[in-house]
What we know:
By secondary structure, the chain is mainly α. Helices cover about 75% and strands about 0% of the residues. About 25% of the residues are buried.
Amino acid sequence: MAETRDAGRTVPFRGGGFLPRPLGIVGPLVFLAVIGLWEAGCRAGLIPPLVLPAPSEALAALSHLVETGLLWKHVGASLQRLVLGWTLGTLIGMAVGVSIGLFSLARAGLAPVVAAVFPIPKIALLPLFVIWFGIGEGSKVATILFGTFFPTVVATYGGVDNVDRSLIRMAQSFGLSWLSIVRKIILPGALPAILPGFRISAAIAIVLLVAAEMIGAEFGIGAYILLAGSLMAMDELIAGVAILSVLGLTVNWLIARAERFLLRWRL
């Protein structure tokens, strides 16, 4: 009788695959709690305004930027440099990374160069880019491109190397052409490594954007932060940092949407 009852009992599903549960409310609540504690500490006098202004003061500075129209000039200039530099660096980096992953000659010639140059801080090369491309837009875009290129190369050829070789051998045994194997097996199989590399390269691009704009830029988020720091306007400085944070969150959200679309076959 007991065995009959056990046989009719529903067994819970245990094949979730460690998929994360969507808990979207937790992030905003933590963020609001941090902002609330920060504001309370400033109003209670525990945090000196010269060291760290209250979030309300930074919000007022941000509102002044919106009213004067300077926000769109600074953000527009930064977005133009960021999109151009990151896009070019990513496309060139993917092309080089795929070449290193597929061709022995490219791996032998380019992989050591990438390994040697990748650890160099790209900010240290900014004066060299200014000499080569001038103090205008060319040096800023080149700095972002150069900083984006190397992590994309490493992520791409690492992803190509990690593609399951049994799938490639199976495709060869069925007589698929080399181009079909690359397009249908290698590139989709490398995407789970390439797309997280986009997150890293985008973060590096934003850091280099700020550094590049602090040298000879009239408009841009980095130029705005540099001017605010020079004038000891801490509320404007925090407002500029908040703009960068929103920019980073937006880029991260766009990449996450791309991952969800391109990697939906993994679910």
